[in-house]
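Retro notes, item 3 of 5
We never archived the inputs for the 6-O-phosphono-alpha-D-glucopyranose complex last cycle. Fixing that now. Sequence and ligand:
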Amino acid sequence: MCGIVGYLGENSALPALIDGLRRLEYRGYDSSGIALRLGSDIQSVKAVGKIKALEEKIFGKDVKSPQSPFAKWGNYNKSPQLQYPRGCLGIAHTRWATHGEPSEANAHPHSDCLGKIWIAHNGIIENYKELKEKLEEKGHKFKSETDTEVIAHLIEDFYPHTNTNDNVSVGAGKSGGDLAGSLRKALKLLEGAYGIVLIHEDYPDKIMAAKMGSPLAIGLGDTETIIASDVSAIITRAKQVIYLDDGEVAEISKNDLRIFNIDNVKIEKKIEEIDWDMGEAEKKGFPHFMLKEIFEQPESIMNSIRGRVMEREGKAKLGGFDSVSKKLRDINRIIITACGTAMHAGLVGEYMLEEYAGIPTEVEYASEFRYRRPIIDKNTALLAISQSGETADTLAAIREAKEKNALTLGIVNVVGSSIAREIDAGAYNHIGPEISVASTKAFTSQVAIMALITVYLGRQRRMSLITGERIIKELLLIPEKIKDILGQNNEIKKIAEKYVNAENFFYLGRKYNYPTALEGALKLKEISYIHAEGIPSGEMKHGSIAMIDENFPSVFICPRDSVYEKNISNMEEIKSRGGRVIAVATEGDERIKEMADDIIYIPKTLEMLTPILATAPLQLFAYHVSALKGLDVDKPRNLAKSVTVE
Ligand code: G6P
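Structure as it came back at the time:
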């Protein structure tokens, strides 16, 4: 949710900032902007829309003759090799609007009255209205409707400037005030969440950053420092990184990096290595990241399982759980919490844990859990699932559970993310960066890890060696089976062509594949803007079936499992009312041919693992519908990959 980049180094900042913005665009993309230090000034450019609009504004549509507001600072006429302006210090932002419509005025970076302080912010300042009123009374003039601008004016208020504007009664005095001190004073007044980078005209060699609730990482390159909301904007330039924690402020200059808290107490930070490969963040010849990530699943699932199974002992080995393994033996209730796709993986986990580990489990949307008065005791564990590890609601749910002394566990993809650092114990997905906003490989990996956790906890309880062995054996076969399904890509595309103009869809499934139905419907909604509802097959007759006619197709997830016959009856109910049916069925199921209009076959597997296989064709179906409609598959409207606001 909003992406921030800051650059300080020996190279031109502009290409680094634009590259960083492109890599963070998935976090939000309704407007963007850059503030660059050029000579003794700071200049800014902003544009509404995706990063491409900002680039066009900077470079012009024809790169050979760019019409850049920065033009006087660089020689752009030596194309095709673009010459960038000399500025080596700058900040940039891609926005997902929370306060104020997407417009140039509301795009970041924002500045103070004198245009000296420039700030890019991710998060929400909850008390901004009250602060804004006070600042306006003191004469501050606001140029946007954002909460962010308040921060720039607050810092200005604490910073003694030589005041050139009589209407502005900000702390008049000599210039050269204490920027870090003014920032700290301003931060103390803020309520809410922020990840901030800021530069100031008086400091040609300084960039400041602060974090509370929104992620911020500082990449340490050989000759440059890049600050960004996540490491995907850093990996091209630096392999070492410092993750800021809540309440920390960083003061970065060319030869120094100082991290302190809001009371100016110095903090020693660990430098960590980024182990993501650059290639993982590129499209590798696929037209969209989503398709690339769908096709990565045989490998990504294997990466999630590798080294974590003990086949002969029928056990799972989860190193991240070792420190709490004794406590886990005493757990008699699990609450799984997550949002969106991750929540659907949690629902699959609920069926697995109850059936195979015998642990009562409930699943709750994180946004609901945090406002309940959950009944938690010392034998309850909270398991949070999050690809980004930054989802604000999930993080808040973890904190709520910690308050009540629950053991907190997690399944997280992004190493070093806020959730990863907050939980007591967890398992990383090890699937590399997921760039497409619509989550695909994260889901299948989350379900695979749920299976491992089920074996881990089950074997601590009453699960037999034989059952443990069987689950592991089947799990290890999943990557090959997914490959078979992906081999049907062309056939699935043909089915998508047939249904591309439908305006509504039901997705129906039972037991383990009820969550699959929810996930299939979510995928279609997210990227094709077609209304789709996931419903338990058995519930459909209690209302939803009234909608069915020949223009309202249903996708049935009905593998040969313990609820197959029930599903078939529900399919008949739809067919007898003229509804069209696309079925996801088990290879060799001939009976389904009598009923379904279109069939996608998946290989046979253990019932608890069918959601992994059944979701893959639904991902492809949604992908093709969206691509056929000519929509922006990877960056659907109104969405963001990482939702760091409530
Ligand atoms: C956003 C994304 C979804 C994702 C959800 C949870 O809404 O658009 O694709 O499932 O957040 O994200 P997380 O990073 O916590 O898994």
